[in-house]
Every structure is written in C-alpha cells, then in structure tokens.
Design brief:
The complex is a heterodimer of chains A (139) and B (335). Chain A starts with a helix and ends in a 16-residue tail after the last helix. Chain A has helices spanning 2-28, 36-56, 59-67, 72-80, 84-95, 103-123. By secondary structure, chain A is an all-alpha fold. Chain B has 335 residues and is α+β, with helices and mostly antiparallel strands. Chain B is built from 13 helices and 9 strands. Chain B has helices at residues 22-49, 72-84, 90-97, 107-116, 127-135, 183-191, 212-224, 228-241, 246-258, 262-275, 280-292, 296-309, 314-328, and strands spanning 56-58, 98-99, 104-105, 120-124, 140-145, 154-163, 168-173, 176-182, 197-201. In chain B, helix 2 crosses helix 3 (90-97), helix 10 (262-275) packs antiparallel against helix 11 and helix 12 packs antiparallel against helix 13 (314-328). The longest helix of chain B has 28 residues, at 22-49. Chain B is elongated and about 95 Å long. Classes of the chains: A mainly alpha (139), B alpha+beta (335).
Chain lengths: 139, 335
C-alpha cells in the first residue's frame, strides 16, 4: 500500500499543479460577464442536486441511509458540497441503475443508490464512510 | 409501413442449389434463423417512427456533390452547406474536416466546421428524428459503417428521403445521387455508429424535432466557434419558442456584447433581470454593460443587487462590484 502511495504521490503533485494553472488565470480578474455556458452548467447542477435530494427523501432510501449511519439531512448537505459537474455525474450514475420492482428489488435498489451517493461523495473527500477509499487524514 | 417478416425459404424448390446436401441445409437454416432474428427486431423502431408521418418524403433542394476517395465527409458537408445557403464545395471544405492520417473526417470536425460557417449543428440520433427531419425538408448527414463492427468502413451520406411502402431510404451517397437503400440495410449500417446524424441549419430555422436544451446547446456551439452574429440569431430564434429560457437571454446579451453591440446587450440583460429577478447572474452582466456604457450609478445598483441575491457565482458578482467601485474612485485594479 505504501508503494502505491509512493507511485501516486508524484502524479498528484502534477495534477495539483495543472489544476492551479486552470484556476489561477480566472482569479486574477474575474469581473467579467457570466458566460452562457456557466449559466447552463449552473442551472443543470442545481437541477441535478434537486433530483438527488428528492431521491434521498424517499422512505426506503432513508432506511438504507440509516443503516449506513447517515441521516438524510447529512446526506443532502454532502450533495450540496458537490460541484455542478459532479452533481450531474452523480445523477447520471443513478440513472444507470436498474429500476427496482418488487419488495426485494426496492431494498437492493435503495442500498445501491445510497452506496453510490456515499461512494461518490467519499471519493471526492466530502465524506468518509468507506474504508477502501484511501485518504490521508489531516486533523 | 408494415412489419413484414422476411420470407426467405418459403419456396425451397426455387433454390438454385441442389437439395440433399444436409450440411448445406443446416448451415442455411442457421443463417435463415439469424436473419429472422435480426430483421424483425430492427425494423420495429422504423415502423413506430413513421407512424405519424407521410408514407414518403423526398427533398429535391439538396444538391449532390460526388466524392473523391475517402472524401465522403467534405462531400456530405458541402451538400448540407449548399442546401443551408452557405456556398461550399468538397475541395474547399476538405482542409477543415479531413484528417489525412485517419483517411477520414471525424464527427467533431464535421460539427466544428458547421459552426465555423455560422450554421447550427444539431444532433439527430435515431429513426424517429431522422424521418421527421427529412419530412420537414431538412437533409440529414448520417455516419454509416459499411463494413463490419470489427472491420469498420466508415462513410458519411446525406439522407434526402424515404419511402415507407417500398421500405427504402434515399441517400446522396458516394458517387450516387438519390441512391435507394433498403431500410433493413440502412438500419444495420447506421446502428453501428449509434445512429449518429447531424443537421446543418441556418440559425433562424428550427429543427423539426428541436428540444429546448439541445437547441440552446447547439446555439452555444456557435458562441464557441466565435460566430457571434449567428449566435445572436440563434438565441433570438430560441426565445420565440422558449421565452422563459434564462440561458438564451444571457447568451443573446453575451453575443451582442461580443459583436460590440453593447446597447442591445444592455437591452437583453435588462429583460433578463425582469424575467429572472432572483438570478444574480442577470444583474451581474447588466452591471457590466451599464458600466461599459458609462452609467456608473445604475451599474453600481445592479452590481449591488447581484451580490445581494448571492448564489454559487457570488464571488464573481463581488468582483464585478469591486471593480465598478474602484473605477468610480479612479482606480483600475484589473487590466
């Protein structure tokens, strides 16, 4: 595992630096028109977040969340922390799930939905539910 | 259109080969079953697609350009361009879309070229939209794989008609104008590109199957290509059908601003603030153009309003406000 971390470290440094290059030019002087694309993406992100929250409000999903020790309120707060693009991707992932039918299907479906929501927020560092998603803890 | 099962094998005595060869017959039976299996299933979407449309449609307004080797992309695009009012021929288009190393034209290059010529590139993605567009008089560029899935021979053609009774589609393809291809064959070759199709339309013309989000995205593509005047027309067109689309107002204002028509940009953003009084982005952009026009007090008010409304882009609104405030005191913190 430490070997993996060693190989990953230089990669993350490169990624961080390249991300800075993406972000920095925009911060120097942001007072400009809001681009049409930004307007569209913001609206889509908002819509996606609403969609996920509606799903999280369903009874069987609340149950499955409780089984993971997360309240629906908390889960929604985590969804709020997602960026627009991330929220859209999350909805796309949830859309790809097979539709649950009868009793057992609904339970498995709910567990899957909760799994994906928590997994994605986990990977992005907003939550810490699954131990197999490795992160360094700064506390 | 009617679903007709293929009637292979109904008259065994008509077969040109001798009977009594058991192995051949078994082989033929297998092929026969495979054909039935495929034929029936892929036919159905076409029948549904044609349900509310005339039995035959053909447009004669799309010209035909014969293609040179590997140049089906430029040829198909030239036909669509000429139809849409852009004078073009395959030779002049080739450098824009043809990738020599791939001996072909990438779909993204086709879309990009349409936008660079100020034309809305609108996606077509299945029999339903294809037939509806053809009947509306719009030629559709389609990508076919004339080879096999594992040995592809990619080819662009232009669909200019169909006849449900004869079960054919009519294509400008390769060196043949008005080529009649059976729907079964066409479906098999088109399905291999996931039913990739493209409309090339003047910005003032709606696709027959236009949906709000897809159309706005298509017009946004014109902005990306720097075709601001065409984008203005596209957004104006979109607003006639979807007058409550925030992105269309913002895009209209932004495109006006880009062509230097700041007065019209102000008008578009002002209407946007009236229609979407809870969206800070509308006030932010209004503030910006007001400031450019020297209306400092009004610009300050709008910028303040944007910051008050907040939202995910509030940091941008704050910078707009700061910049306007700074310029009011004769300082210029930004370039």
């Amino acid at each position: 595992m430490s070997m993996l971390r060693q190989t990953v470290k230089p990669v993350s440094v490169v990624v961080i630096i390249s991300m800075l290059f993406v972000v920095v030019p925009y911060q120097s002087c942001l007072a400009a028109l809001i681009g049409t694309e930004t307007v569209i993406e913001t609206a889509r992100g908002h819509e996606a977040r609403q969609q996920v929250k509606q799903i999280l409000d369903r009874e069987e999903i609340r149950k499955a969340l409780r089984a993971q020790g997360v309240s629906a309120q908390e889960a929604k707060a985590r969804v709020d922390a997602l960026s627009d693009a991330e929220a859209v991707r999350l909805v796309e992932k949830l859309d790809q799930l097979p539709a649950g039918g009868d009793g057992l299907g609904v339970v498995i479906g709910a567990a899957l939905v909760v799994f994906i929501v928590l997994l994605i927020t986990d990977i992005l560092g907003y939550t810490d539910v699954f131990t197999f998603v490795k992160k360094r803890h700064v506390r | 259109m009617s679903v007709r099962g293929p009637d292979f094998g109904s008259k065994p005595d008509g077969w040109p080969w001798g009977t009594g060869r058991a192995d051949r017959i078994i082989l033929l039976l297998i092929v026969h079953l495979m054909l039935i299996g495929c034929g029936g299933a892929m036919h159905r979407p076409w029948v549904q697609a044609g349900a509310n449309l005339p039995a035959r449609c053909q447009l004669d307004s799309a010209p035909f350009y014969s293609q040179k080797a590997f140049q089906c992309g430029p040829a198909a695009l030239a036909m669509a361009f000429t139809w849409s009012g852009v004078s073009a021929d395959p030779d002049t288009l080739a450098p824009e879309v043809f990738t020599a190393s791939r001996k072909g034209s990438l779909q993204s290059a086709m879309i990009g070229s349409a936008r660079r010529h100020g034309r809305v590139a609108y996606p077509v993605s299945g029999p339903q939209t294809l037939l509806a567009e053809v009947c509306a008089g719009h030629p559709v560029i389609v990508l076919q794989n004339l080879g096999l899935s594992w040995y592809p021979v990619w080819h662009y053609a232009v669909v200019v008609g169909y006849d449900a009774n004869e079960e054919i589609v009519i294509l400008h393809s390769g060196v043949i104008p008005y080529k009649r291809v059976s729907i079964k064959v066409f479906e098999r070759t088109w399905a291999r590109s996931d039913h990739w199709g493209l409309l090339v339309l003047p910005p003032a013309r709606f696709p027959a199957t236009a949906t709000e989000d897809a159309y706005i995205s298509a017009v946004l593509g014109l902005e990306k290509a720097g075709q601001w005047q065409a984008a203005v027309e596209g957004y104006k067109n979109a607003l006639t059908r979807w007058p409550d689309n925030l992105a269309a107002y913002m895009g209209l204002g932004n495109s006006y601003y880009a062509v230097g028509n700041i007065e019209s940009a102000e008008g578009a953003f002002r209407v946007a603030t009236h229609r979407f009084p809870t969206h800070g982005s509308t006030f932010n952009n209004l503030a910006h153009v007001l400031w450019k026009r020297g209306k400092q007090q009004a610009a300050l008010d709008a910028a303040h309003r944007a910051v008050e409304l907040g939202g995910p882009l509030v940091s941008v609104y704050r910078e707009t406000l700061e910049e306007i405030q700074a310029s009011a005191y004769g300082q210029r913190p930004c370039r």
